[in-house]
Design brief:
mainly beta, two-stranded antiparallel ribbon, 7-stranded mixed β-barrel
Length: 120
Amino acid sequence: MFLPPPEETNIMIGRKRIKVNEARSLASKIAGLIGKKNQKEGNAMLFRFLIPTRKIFWTVGMQFPINIFWIKNGRIIAVSKNIPPGTPFVPSPGNVDAALEACQTFSRKNKIPDSGKITY
């Protein structure tokens, strides 16, 4: 199955600029980090949503555990940590307008905090 590649973009967390992939098409939002073979390849993916609502992510088909940073109004409001591959439902803690899906090594390397300002 052909999936359009996600686009690279920069985000700012606090004063730190971080390069991530952004899922802009419906297909890339559905796929997320699925299919990446390892954490180094996985990095992180930003998902933005037009309308703030509750979201549900899944990790079926992933090869490594991830963190999901839930974002609302330009702030990280919560983190779902160390989600194992094959988890069928990972609900947001409430309405969100973005999420950052990141492998464990990416989260540690970039010292992504559990809360704080994020711009993209």
